[in-house]
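WARN retry 2 of 3 for item q-0093 after timeout on previous attempt; input resubmitted unchanged.
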Amino acid sequence: MRGENLGELEELVLLTVGSLYPEAYAPVIKKELAEKMDRKVVMSSIHTVLTRLENKQFVCSRFGDSTPERGGKRKRLFEVTPEGFKALESLKSKRDALWGNMLQLMPNLQ
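OK item q-0093 returned
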């Protein structure tokens, strides 16, 4: 792993790519974020984040077959890499530790 941190939107997009496998492509990622996270993100931001994640080697992409409903245009499908999964796992572990500390110090929040 390259040791690069994940921003909030990067984390959400990476989690969404993993949850949509094998049909994770930009328009579906955008729709999923709107529905599941109540997060409206413009398509250019999705593409920017996917490019950053690919540069960090947290996702890889391939082109699917062309379809008539897309006017013969092929989908660019994304998949979480082992490095991406490790980054998500590490971030979750760190968040869980912080939550555990907070709940231990502030038991009235439970």
